[in-house]
Amino acid sequence: MCQLRIDIRDEFSLHTMWFRGLSKHIGIVACSAEGAALCYLTICLEAGQFHPEVTMHTHPLGEYMRYVDVGDWDSVANLMLSSEAKLVSAGANFIICPDNTIHQAFDQVIEKASLPWLHIAEVVAEEAARLNYRRAGLLGTRYLMEGPVYSSKLARRGIEYLIPNPDERRHVNQIIFNELVNGRFTNDSQEYLIAVIERLKNQGCDSVILGCTEIPLIVTTENSPLPVLDSTRLLARAAVNSALSP
Q: Is 204 left (phi over 0), alpha (psi -120 to 50) or beta?
């Protein structure tokens, strides 16, 4: 009698082929390295060893910032669409972008996009509403804190938001661009961000949106004075859910 023998490696391969056949391919349009890496890692860890197929492309951060600094959002959108084109050719089924700031160009992107995109602020707003938060603090780059990315998404769900004062916004922005995007994480900066969150709490905030994808590397649920809405990990989890949905 002939017996069929499958060792662990064969069984792993069979499971992998089965899983990939049912899941969608996630494309990541990256901007800054640390936040994109955290998003990618979260996707892999959340879904386990049989995570969906993932492809990532990024233009240099400096290329993005050349346009962000002068408010040229059409050019930012063109960079994002250039990355999307590469992800389309790699077989991606939908796109995420683990960078809050450049979502200011999202509408221009969607007008010309070839694939569906998840909106990071939409994902965060959905989670805030699910948890019945009503007044969130918002941390991120100064472009993000002073810009429109979160306003309509939160307002649609009846959620107010507050941003730090101008001096705090400048300091938070410096921490992000001088340290976090370069992989530098200092105790002084961690303490400063926590103090800013404490002041937002004193102003009536019931949660804080970590609206820079690097901030979760230094502010956590354990050290934050307020419950955190971690935009990086929420987007990653939403991507996994989308990849596994019919």
A: left
| Tens digits of residue pLDDT in 107-152 | 999 999 999 999 999 999 999 999 999 999 999 999 999 999 999 9
In angstroms, the Cα distances linking 69 to 33, 99, 143 are: 19, 15, 9
* Contact (Cβ atoms closer than 8 angstroms) between residue 88 and residue 59: no
Q: What's the length of the chain?
A: 246
b vs e for 38-47, b when ≥16 Cβ sit within 10 Å of the residue's Cβ?
A: bbbebbeeeb
Q: What is the DSSP string of 102-153?
A: GGGGHHHHHHH-SS-B--HHHHHHHHHHHTT--EEEEES-HHHHTSSTTHHH
- HEC string of 158-180 equals CCEEECCCHHHHHHHHHHHHHCH
pLDDT digits (tens, 9 = 90+) for 67-86: 999 999 999 999 999 999 99
Q: Say whether 121-230 and 21-119+234-244 share the same fold.
A: yes
CB neighbours of residue 191 within 10 Å:
12
Which one-letter DSSP state was computed for residue 48? G
**Has domain 121-230 been given CATH number 3.40.50.1860?**
yes
CA 9 from centre of chain: 34
Residue with tokens 């800013």: 196
Q: Where are the domains of the chain?
A: 21-119+234-244, 121-230
- CATH no. for 21-119+234-244: 3.40.50.1860
Strand partners, 139: 210
> Which tokens go with 70?
């002068």
User: To the nearest whole number, what is the mean pLDDT of the chain?
Assistant: 91
